[in-house]
Structure formats: C-alpha cells, structure tokens
C-alpha cells in the first residue's frame, strides 16, 4: 500500500489556473473522492497524479518519493476512465493480459493473474467475449480488472460510473467499494456526484475553482460543512438566518423571524448579531398547527417520492425544504409548524 502526498499543486493552462495550490495527503489504503462541479479542477488533479499532465508548481510524492517528473508508466498506477477504453478487437482475457504482456510477465503468471482478477470482478465466465458483447456495467468491471491486474500501488478512477444507468450505478458503487476494501489499495476517485462520493469514500475532498473547500469524512462534510457553498453542493440545504439573543460557553440562542422560538446551538457570536445556520431537509419536522414548534409556515408544494414526501414550506420571506416521512401528510396551502433539531443545526462561517 502506498501513501500519496500532494504538496501545493498548481496547474496552469496559459493564464488559467485549473488547480490552485492543492495540498492533500491520502493515507495507505484510503478511499478518497475528489468532488466538485464541472471545471473545478478535480480531473486535472488526478491527471497530474497519473502523469498525464505536467505540474506547473508543487510536488507529488508516493511514499515520500517525488514522482512529479516521472512518466505515467513509471508511477505504478492503475487508472479507470468514464469511457471504458477497452481494446475492442481483444477478448476480456486479452484485454486483461495486455498490460502484463507489456511488462514481460511470464506466461504462467499472466494466466494465473488474469484468472484471479476475473474472479475478483465476477467475470470468469466472460473470458472469451469481446467488449461489444458485454453490458456497460460488465465493460466497466473489465476496465477495473485491467487497472488492478498489474497490481498497482494506487488506483485512480475518473467518473467511472458516469455512463451507466442509475440502478447499475448504485450497484457498481458498492461493488467498487467492496473490491477496494478487499484489495486494500489506496484509491482516488473523481466524481461530480455527491451521493457517490458520500457512499463510497473514507474521505471526501470538495473542490471549487481549483481549490480544496473541505476535506473530511462524509458525515462531517454533510453535517458540518465548512461553508455555505459546501453545504449547498453536498445535498440540499436550508440556510436560515437568525438573530443571536444570548451567548456564552460556546453556545448561542438564536431567534428566527419575529415569532420564531429560541433555538440553542453551538457557536460563538455576540448578542444582536445575525447568524446563518444550515438545516438539512430531513432534519426539519413538520407538526400540526398548534403543536409545539419553532416556527410556523404554509405548505407551498409537496412531491411524493416513494418513502418520503418533499415539501416546500413558506416561513416569512423564506422557503424551507422538508424531507418528511409519509405517515402524516399535509396538503398544499396547509398551515404547519416546523421543529428544528438543535443538535443538527450547523452554524456557518461568515457574516449573515
Ligand atoms: N487541456 C486543457 N487546456 C486548457 N484548459 C483546460 C485543459 N484541461 C482542463 N482545462 C480547464 O481547467 C479547468 C479544470 O478542468 P478539469 O477538467 O480539471 O475540471 P473537472 O472538475 O474535472 O471538470 P469535469 O467534471 O467537467 O471534467 C477548467 O476550467 C477547464 O476548462
């Protein structure tokens, strides 16, 4: 297993900064996702690690060795792309053997390793098939096997599930994650899909404009986002502004609107100041009017979504998203109360 250190990485295309001073350590056997909107620099970061792009500044170390100037084939990486990039004129077994033949591995050893990796990705019965005779998910499993068969030190994946339909994508998430755990390989995974990053990763690195906005465990990024931009990119977020009525011992009492009840939450701000807090839609509870609540509002719309109902509720000038169980239903126009779970409200940095 290998540790990857990215130190003050900069990548410029002309005057444009695609990667702007990225520093990140990926531990032995860790699964780290680079998550961000299109153009934020995640693929460029991965390409610099793979050696497909030269770095403009900064260094990349594998287990303490500077590999910034090594050719891609000398970096000991396995790579999987969105387009499976399989050789169409070769069978599955041929595709898997190719990298080993290039490395002049002995024939017996190639046979053994190809058989092992086909079993690992559950494709043993497909050895003689050509890529065009496989489904998208199967082709991506071959691509994964081809990256792993060379037994690389690091696995790099760039949007590998983007071409698959939704159900297959869900299955492949678990498949890749289980496989990575079994093999124990240090993995960097690029995606713009926050669900994918959350379910698969040990750590999620959120990037905007070539910079890291937050690098933390999925739960931390979701529950304790470093900024409003992270809060909004990772899942849905209600951003509420309240007035601090009292403060002390690392907690503040916040009042939303003129009628809102006081909610006590962790934070430090002077009384009278305005504070923005994040409440995830599933952390807001709807109550019948008259029942104890923190605020009152009117249902603007509701959408049935299988196990849940997604409501939009007008509270004063704000619209609050609520992701609620189906047990109690409220019609459009209904008066409702909203109750926040103070333990789950998260104060955001910066002035309101
Ligand atoms: N070869 C290139 N020449 C010039 N600019 C480039 C090149 N490759 C990428 N860029 C620019 O660098 C920035 C980062 O691109 P990058 O592909 O890393 O983003 P990304 O987050 O992976 O986006 P996507 O999900 O769309 O691939 C973008 O503004 C892009 O236009």
TrEMBL record:
Keywords: ATP-binding, Nucleotide-binding, Transport
Molecular function GO terms recorded: ABC-type transporter activity; ATP binding; ATP hydrolysis activity
A Pfam family recorded for this sequence: ABC_tran
Ranges of residues in domain ABC transporter: 4-234
Superkingdom of this protein's organism: Bacteria
One term under GO cellular component: ATP-binding cassette (ABC) transporter complex
InterPro entries in alphabetical order: AAA+_ATPase, ABC_SmlMolc_Importer, ABC_transporter-like_ATP-bd, ABC_transporter-like_CS, Mo/tungstate-bd_C_term_dom, P-loop_NTPase, Transp-assoc_OB_typ2
Matches recorded under PANTHER family: SPERMIDINE/PUTRESCINE IMPORT ATP-BINDING PROTEIN POTA, SPERMIDINE_PUTRESCINE IMPORT ATP-BINDING PROTEIN POTA
Family to which this protein belongs: Belongs to the ABC transporter superfamily.
Name by which UniProt lists this protein: ABC transporter ATP-binding protein
Source organism of the structure: Paroceanicella profunda
High-level lineage: Bacteria, Pseudomonadati, Pseudomonadota, Alphaproteobacteria, Rhodobacterales
């Amino acid at each position: 297993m290998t540790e990857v250190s990215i130190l003050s990485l900069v990548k410029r295309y002309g005057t444009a900064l695609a990667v702007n001073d990225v520093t990140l350590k990926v531990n032995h056997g860790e699964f780290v996702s680079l998550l961000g909107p299109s153009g934020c620099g995640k693929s460029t970061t991965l390409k610099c690690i793979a050696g497909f792009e030269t770095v403009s500044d900064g260094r990349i170390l594998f287990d303490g060795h500077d590999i910034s100037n090594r050719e891609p084939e000398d970096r000991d990486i396995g790579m999987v792309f969105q387009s499976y990039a399989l050789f169409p004129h070769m069978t599955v077994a041929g595709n898997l053997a190719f990298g080993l033949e290039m490395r002049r591995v002995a024939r017996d050893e190639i046979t053994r390793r190809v058989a092992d990796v086909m079993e690992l990705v559950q494709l043993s019965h497909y050895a003689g098939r050509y890529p065009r005779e496989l489904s998208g998910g199967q082709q991506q499993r071959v691509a994964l096997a081809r990256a792993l068969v060379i037994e690389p030190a690091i696995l790099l994946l760039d949007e590998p599930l983007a071409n698959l339909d939704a159900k297959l994508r869900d299955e492949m998430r678990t498949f890749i994650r289980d496989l990575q755990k079994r093999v124990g390989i240090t993995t960097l995974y690029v995606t713009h899909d926050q669900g994918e990053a959350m379910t698969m990763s040990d750590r999620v690195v959120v990037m905007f404009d070539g910079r890291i906005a937050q690098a933390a465990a999925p739960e931390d990024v979701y529950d304790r986002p470093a900024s409003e931009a992270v809060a909004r990119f990772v899942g849905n977020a209600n951003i509420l502004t309240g007035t601090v009525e009292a403060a002390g011992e690392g907690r503040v009492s916040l009042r939303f609107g003129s009628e809102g009840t006081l909610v006590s939450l962790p934070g430090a701000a002077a009384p009278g100041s305005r504070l923005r807090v994040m409440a995830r839609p599933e952390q807001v509870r709807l109550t019948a009017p008259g029942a104890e609540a923190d605020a009152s509002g009117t249902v603007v719309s509701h959408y049935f979504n299988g196990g849940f109902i997604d409501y939009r509720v007008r509270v004063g000038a704000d619209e609050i998203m609520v992701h609620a169980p189906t047990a109690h239903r409220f019609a459009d126009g209904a008066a409702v109360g909203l109750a926040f779970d103070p333990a789950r409200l998260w104060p955001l940095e910066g002035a309101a």
